[in-house]
Design goal:
It catalyses: L-alanine = D-alanine. Its EC number is 5.1.1.1. By secondary structure, the protein is an alpha/beta fold. It has two domains: 15-227, TIM Barrel; 246-352, Beta Barrel (Lyase, Ornithine Decarboxylase, Chain A, domain 1). The protein has eleven helices and 20 strands. Helix 6 links the parallel strand 5 (101-105) and strand 6 (126-132). The longest helix has 16 residues, at 178-193. The structure holds pyridoxal-5'-phosphate.
């Protein structure tokens, strides 16, 4: 996809903020390894940019969602351990092994399919993390006998090494810990079923690292909190202040005065009540600024300006308090004078979570670093 790097619309990534969020996590859990979760283009912040910051912060490794993301890190010469979090086809086991990429396994059939392929290609040993479905209902072993049998198969297989055992919590970001505790207990039962403890036993996403610090874990899969976002939205208080790394800015590229009764945008759903100044912002739903953001506000000169009329594919319009020239800065996410709009505010308005807003910002929007390390 073409990145519009000549347009004033840009995602600004505060590198220092990411670095400090990692440092905070390291301080809170000094004996736990931090794996930086950089899947989905680092939650929209830029894969290689964030990997570099995490490397400078001395994380122990990276987590990604798909094999291609892991390969991109290897291609960029990152030598840290990398764990893919989603199931990879057994046919790709040799490729993962050659690049020293660890993969999750949720059933014995996967191991049985992969071993002969690894043997045939004469690859280095493939490191696998056995996934436990302790209640997330997504991937992983559910029965102690099944995981014990799979671990025995892997132990006897010359090209497989059980490097890890892990699970994922469904409710680590909620105040009620009953389901979390149940998952935790199930995971421990599965751990006991293994003949020996793997090198990495891990359960913690950001939320678990923040609100369940006692839950034993050799490594934290540190995702959304690294980007300065509260995993619970507004539900739980942050044990340390997270610094949001992402802001989204643009400019007024066109401004005009319209008069009572004049309409704005598709469907002509908005009509001016009086003389009004309308500015046009070059960002639309093709950039990830959802159509349903109509009626929300952006910041111009510290003032909230309503998005009027429908959001178009590449542009939207705002009502200005008075005339502003083209080139005037517009803040969609971030701070303008005393006013701030957060990704959480955007998510609330769009009835979703901040993760989704960040991931939806498309490759057309240029990413630039600020406070570069
Ligand atoms: C995405 C993901 C994480 C990171 O979650 P955050 O809430 O962003 O910290 C951790 N573990 C697994 C298995 C994941 O899929």
């Amino acid at each position: 996809m073409v990145t519009a790097d000549l347009r004033p619309t840009q995602v600004l990534v505060n590198e220092q903020a990411i670095f400090e969020n990692i440092q905070q996590a390291q301080r809170l859990a000094p004996h736990t390894r931090i794996f930086a979760v950089v899947k989905a283009d680092a939650y929209g912040h830029g894969l290689l940019r964030v990997a570099r910051i995490a490397h400078l912060a001395k994380v122990s490794g990276f987590c990604v969602a798909v094999l291609e993301e892991a390969l991109a890190l290897r291609q960029a010469h990152f030598t840290e351990p990398i764990l893919v979090l989603g199931i990879v086809a057994p046919e790709l086991a040799p490729l993962a092994a050659v690049h020293d990429i660890s993969v999750p396994v949720g059933d014995e059939a996967w191991l049985k399919a992969a071993e002969p392929l690894l043997a045939k290609a004469d690859t280095p040993v493939l490191k696998v993390h056995l996934a436990v479905d302790s209640g997330m209902g997504r991937i992983g072993f559910r029965q102690p006998q099944a995981i014990a049998k799979a671990a025995a198969f892997a132990d006897a297989a010359p090209h497989l090494l059980v490097e890890g055992l892990f699970t994922h919590f469904a409710t680590a970001d909620e105040a009620d810990t009953q389901y979390f505790d149940q998952q935790s207990a199930r995971f421990n039962t599965m751990l006991q079923a293994l003949p020996k403890r793997p090198r990495f036993v891990h359960v913690a996403n950001s939320a678990t690292s923040l609100w369940h610090q006692k839950t034993a874990s050799d490594m934290i899969r540190f995702g959304v909190a690294m980007y300065g976002l509260n995993p619970s939205g507004r539900a739980l208080p942050e044990p340390y202040p997270l610094k949001p790394a992402l802001s989204l800015v643009s400019q007024i590229v066109f401004a005009k005065q319209i008069h009572a009764g004049d309409a704005v945008s598709y469907g002509a759903t908005y009509h001016a009540q009086q003389d009004e100044w309308i500015g046009t912002v070059p960002m639309g739903y093709a950039d990830g600024w959802l159509r349903r953001m109509q009626g929300f506000s952006v910041l111009v000169d510290g003032q909230r300006c309503e998005i009027v009329g429908r959001v178009c594919m590449d542009q939207f319009m705002i009502r200005l308090p008075h005339e502003y020239p083209f080139g005037t800065p517009v803040v969609l996410v971030g701070t303008s004078k005393a006013a701030t709009i957060t990704l959480q505010d955007v998510a609330d308005y769009a009835s979703t979570i901040h993760y989704e807003i960040a991931c939806n910002l498309t490759q057309r929007v240029v990413r630039r670093s600020i406070s570069r390390l």
